[in-house]
């Protein structure tokens, strides 16, 4: 009977180490890419950066607005969550796929912080599963999942993104 507790503890430690490793990778990647990124920014610029991120979530998730998405992304946008540069068309295709899989898809910022050229936020997504997603047939389930995202803003455009989204929790909701 006492053998079960150490296994649970080891599982917890493994998950914690994995999460810590992923966070260290994200924080390492967040180092400034240019000497200008460590300069303090005005409150107006920080507010504009936060507004851009909120507008981007609105365009990608709430409305699926391809023209707004194109206007918001830098031409060399790099998505660290997928490990590559992504064109606006690729981001638009991802948005379309999410809207096909989830009806009434929405994202709401639970918190948003801006410093230098970075904006960080905690978000909650909601929708109803109506189309295939990651091989899971439509269930009709209403879902809610959360994530944290960092964005780098350069010259008024989104140039980089780091994201950790609880897709495992979303899959559990769809399969449960």
UniProtKB/TrEMBL annotation:
It comes from the Bacteria. SUPFAM superfamilies: NTF2-like (SSF54427). Pfam families: SnoaL (PF07366). InterPro entries: Cyclase_SnoaL-like, NTF2-like_dom_sf. GO terms for biological process: polyketide metabolic process. PANTHER family: ESTER CYCLASE, POLYKETIDE CYCLASE SNOAL-LIKE DOMAIN. This is Ester cyclase. It comes from Bradyrhizobium macuxiense. The lineage of its organism: Bacteria, Pseudomonadati, Pseudomonadota, Alphaproteobacteria, Hyphomicrobiales.
